[in-house]
Each structure stands twice: as C-alpha cells, then as structure tokens.
C-alpha cells in the first residue's frame, strides 16, 4: 500500500530517482513537518489531517495551540475560529461574536477563549481555503476540534503501530495576548509535555513561537528544542523594538541562538523571488543561521499554483498542482534542516525516494 502511494506521488510530481545531497547542519536529511497536518488534503488541525500526514511519511506534525476559557490547549490556527469551524451556524453562540484587539490588530469573530472545551466540542471543522481546495470541503462538518493531548495520544499510538518515531512541533499562538487575559500557555504546555515524557533536546519535539519572551521563559524551564519564528516584515508582538529583519542579521542570529535552537522563516527569506515571480537567488540566510549554530525550518511549501514560484506553476489555474517537488529540491540544496509543508507526501518522497517516501 505504501509503495503504491509513493509510485503515485512519483508519477504526479516527477520525483527524482535518488535523494539529493544534504547540506543540513547535522548532515542528516531534512525533516518533513506536516503543516497543520496534511492540510492540503484534509481540513487543517484535525486528527484526520494529522493522521493522514503520519501515514504519508511526515517526520513531525504541527499543531498550533490556543486556549479555551477553562484553560485547555486546543489545536487551531488562530483563536478566532469563524474561518475554520461552523461556529457561525450555531445560533446559541451568536451573542459571542465580538471584536477584539489581538497583537495590535482588530479582529472580529468568535474566539476560543470565550468557549469552554465542552462548548467547542459541539463545533465541527471546516476547510480554511475552500476557494483553492474545493475537494477538502467534502470533509466539512466531520471532525471536532482536537485538544493538544489528543494530538499527543494519536502520535504515540501511531508510533507503536508504525514502528517509528513521530515528532510533534507545537506553536504557541499569541502567547502575550493569552497571558494578558489570564490564560498563559506555559503551565499547561509544560505539564502535558512532562506527563508524556518530553523533556530533552533529544526528544522529537520542537516548540515554536513568533514571540520572543515566551521562548526565553521556556528556555529556562525545559530542555526541549525551541524555534524562533520570523516573518518577512514587522516585529514580534512582544518586542516592537526588534524587527524580524534585524533578527536575521549575523548579530541578531547570535542573540537568537542564546535562547533558541533554530529559526522558522518564510521561504522567500531564504531564496528570493525574481521580479517575474520565479525562483531567484539565495539570500545567504541559511548559511548565516548555520554559522550561528541554528537550524533552519522554512514555511510553507504548498502544491497549488497560487503559492508556487511562477516558473514552477502548471498553467493559469491557481488551484492546480504545480511542481512542488522541484521547489522543495531547491531548498534542500540550499541546506535547510527541515521544512513545513501542507503536502507531506510530496516532501517525504523528495527526501526519501529510495524508501518509498515513508519510514
């Protein structure tokens, strides 16, 4: 079955017969991180999406973590959930629609922190990008919002079934905001990790954040690996004095290396786009980060034309699948240590073609 899956991937995506040479910091193949699960094929942040990613050979699954009113960590891309659940169809929750300021931005909708876990359990997940992934809408209404503990339990069960290690790569979403309303991530996150034995830099677990303060605090309380996420512009919500651009200079990376083990930049910060939108030249960021002792895990690799460099698209339809495998190979050649993808089947097959893309 797995071999058949890989052969199909090879036919669809033109995968190479041999793995590319790896210029990672460790010399090992880069890790494939399933971005919100196999979110190119199932509604994101559902157990179904994580499970499909595991079956397709992902090394890690990535849950974004927000909190409920009763302090439970759940997996959602944002605390505002109108785009990823059917909450708007529930008249009993109509009065909870409101406008809030999240990290300095005005947001209107329904927020996880205004619901107990039991109330969230009455909602069902929906495809976040229906205009690009119409096929995924067939799964709308089928899956509940999972807790972080349920994600861990799924991973542990699948490790036993598949006989391989499966990593978890949680992101703390808006940690300063949640701390300001009395729902900090730190305590429930560390308690769960300790309960399931994640306490070492050797464990298959990374914690990531776009903010700085919570990573520094976590660095003093856990030995698991930490990743500083950055964007192409702007600054961490908790550090308006510190631009992401400056953090990615040689001096800035040295500062990051004092509390984190790696960086998670958008892919265009590593290989720039040309004026026509095609894949351009290296920015040198991977080499600078490696020199500072940091791993590099860029985001996000997606197969739809809409997200791909112009020279790797197939036709004009933004929904059509382009040559994602070629894009991934270019970044592997750049020396990335891992990558986030909505399509882990493609990523795993590029990294491990001789193993059928799977472990």
Automatic annotation (TrEMBL):
It catalyses: a sn-glycero-3-phosphodiester + H2O = an alcohol + sn-glycerol 3-phosphate + H(+). CDD domains: GDPD_ScGlpQ1_like. Residues 1-19 form the signal peptide. GO terms for molecular function: glycerophosphodiester phosphodiesterase activity. Keywords: Glycerol metabolism, Hydrolase, Signal. One of its GO terms (biological process) is lipid metabolic process. Its EC number is 3.1.4.46. SUPFAM superfamilies: PLC-like phosphodiesterases. Residues 30-351 form the GP-PDE domain. Pfam families: GDPD. GO terms for cellular component: periplasmic space. Belongs to the glycerophosphoryl diester phosphodiesterase family. PANTHER family: GLYCEROPHOSPHODIESTER PHOSPHODIESTERASE GDPD5-RELATED, GLYCEROPHOSPHORYL DIESTER PHOSPHODIESTERASE. This is glycerophosphodiester phosphodiesterase. It comes from Sphingomonas lacunae.
């Amino acid at each position: 079955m797995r071999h058949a899956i890989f052969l199909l991937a090879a036919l669809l995506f033109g995968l190479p017969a041999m793995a590319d040479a790896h210029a990672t910091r460790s010399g090992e193949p880069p890790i494939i991180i399933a971005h919100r699960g196999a979110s190119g094929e199932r509604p994101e942040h559902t157990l179904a999406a994580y499970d499909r990613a595991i079956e397709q050979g992902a090394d890690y699954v990535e849950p974004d973590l927000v909190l409920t009113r009763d302090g439970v960590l759940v997996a959602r891309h944002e605390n505002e959930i109108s785009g990823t659940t059917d909450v708007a169809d529930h008249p009993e929750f109509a009065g909870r629609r409101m406008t809030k300021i999240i990290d300095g931005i005005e947001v209107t909708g329904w927020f996880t922190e205004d619901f107990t876990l039991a109330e969230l359990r009455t909602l069902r997940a929906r495809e976040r990008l229906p205009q690009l992934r119409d096929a995924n809408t067939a799964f709308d209404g089928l899956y509940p919002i999972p807790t972080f503990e349920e994600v861990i339990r799924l991973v542990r069960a699948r490790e036993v079934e598949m006989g391989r290690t499966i990593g978890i790569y949680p992101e703390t979403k808006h940690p300063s905001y949640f701390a300001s309303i009395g729902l900090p991530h730190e305590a429930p996150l560390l308690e769960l990790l300790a309960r399931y034995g994640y306490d070492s830099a050797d464990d298959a677990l990374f914690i990531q954040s776009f903010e700085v303060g919570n990573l520094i605090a976590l660095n003093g309380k856990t030995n698991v690996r930490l990743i500083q996420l950055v964007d192409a512009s702007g600054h961490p919500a908790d550090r308006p004095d510190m631009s992401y651009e400056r953090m990615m200079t040689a001096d800035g990376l040295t500062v990051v290396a004092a509390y984190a083990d790696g960086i998670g930049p958008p892919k265009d910060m590593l290989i720039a786009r040309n004026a026509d939108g095609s894949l351009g030249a290296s920015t040198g960021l991977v080499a600078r980060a490696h020199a500072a002792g940091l791993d590099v895990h860029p985001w996000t690799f997606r197969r739809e034309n809409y997200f791909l460099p112009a020279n790797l698209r197939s036709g004009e339809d933004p929904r059509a699948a382009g040559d994602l495998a070629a894009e991934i190979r270019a970044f592997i050649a750049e020396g990335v240590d891992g990558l986030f993808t909505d399509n882990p089947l493609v990523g795993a097959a590029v990294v491990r073609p001789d193993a059928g893309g799977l472990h």
